Amino acid sequence: MARPLRVEYEGAVYHVTSRGNARADIFIDDDDRQKILSVLAGVVDRYEFVIHSYCLMSNHYHLLVETPRGNLSTGMRQLNGVYTQAFDRRHGRVGHIFQGRFKGILVDKEEYLLELSRYVVLNPVRAGMVEEPEDWRWSSYRAMAGLEDGPKFLHKDWLLSEFSSESKRAGERYCEFVKQGKDVKSPLKKAYGGWVLGGKNFLKMLEGRLERGEGKDKREKKEVPRRERHAVRPSLKEIFENQARDGGIYEAVYRWGYKLKEVGDYLGRHYSWVSKELTRMENIKT
After folding, report:
1. What's the Cα-to-Cα distance from 148 to each of 61, 139, 143, 261, 269, rounded to whole Å?
2. Does residue 78 surpass a pLDDT of 70?
3. Which residues make Cβ contacts (< 8 Å) with residue 117, sequence separation at least 6?
4. What is the pLDDT at residue 1?
5. pLDDT tens per residue across span 92-149
6. Which residues contact 83 (CB under 8 A, 6 or more apart)?
7. Residue 18: which of 123, 98, 96 has the closest Cα?
8. Higher-confidence residue: 44 or 194?
9. pLDDT band at 14 (very low <50, low <70, confident <90, very high)
10. What confidence score (pLDDT) does residue 77 get?
11. How many degrees, rounded to 5, is the angle at CA 67 between CA 61 and CA 73?
12. Chain-wide mean pLDDT for the chain?
């Protein structure tokens, strides 16, 4: 199976999830949950992660992570690796407890972080584990709402400042915002290619980084699924509106990875005609 695209750069923000093998529980009891929070605190300190929101469920967890040093994968390997060792020792077992690598969706902070923070802490409510988000001890909701101090690693300032400059009022408005989202669909369904959630300007920024080869492990380039590699590409309409037909065909196929049939359908031609046009252009170049 192809590995998911991992784009990392300084200041990037992600919605991260990690699940148990075969949907098995990764937290047997509250001591396990307390342990992963302790490990996370160490990761935050060592790798300078900024945690905007979190929620520990039974067979998975959610994090909203900002990476000032562009080091998500390194920090996540530490988090899941150290926790797995502790879990195995405590419960007398061996082997991995997580289902492969973590999933990290790159997020446009200004457009989606607020909405995602609500989605994350409402997970126990949607799962029927509690009736209200404040009833679940193992998320960032209670700390954000001012009901408890919460872990020291939790970064409250950015999120609460979106509601008010006065802390008590900010907490009240945050609570209102979260509870209004109980019936709101997951914003993650809007993620392009399953790995990036953002507006047009954000996608253009990422497009530039990918074109320059920035922000991803070069060893993974050949393993990246096509749908993810081209998730931020322009539409065929945009490609052909900005240049002549020949240039559009060449760019659509060789730069952005469109299939011959996709280009042919757009131009009202058979894919074999597109293939012949590309051959003709190659012959002209040589």
Report:
1. 21, 11, 5, 58, 64
2. yes
3. 52, 53, 64, 140, 144, 159
4. 39
5. 998 889 998 899 999 999 999 999 999 999 999 999 999 999 999 999 999 999 999 9
6. 35, 36, 39
7. 98
8. 44
9. very high
10. 95
11. 60
12. 88
Question: Residue 227's closest CA among 259, 263, 271, 270?
Answer: 259
Does position 215 have pLDDT exceeding 90, yes or no? Answer: no
Contacts of 92 (CB under 8 A, 6+ apart): none
Q: Are 115 and 106 in contact (CB under 8 A)?
A: no
Q: Is the pLDDT of residue 15 over 90?
A: yes
pLDDT of 191 above 70: yes
Helical pair 167-179 and 109-121, crossing angle rounded to 10 deg: 70
Q: How many angstroms separate the CA atoms of 83 and 150, rounded?
A: 20
Rounded to whole angstroms, how far apart are CA atoms 123 and 126?
5
Q: Among 72, 90, 73, which residue's Cα sits nearest to residue 36?
A: 90
At 242, which amino acid appears?
A: N
Give yes or no for a contact between 76 and 104, defined as CB atoms under 8 angstroms apart.
Answer: yes
- pLDDT of 280 higher than 60: yes
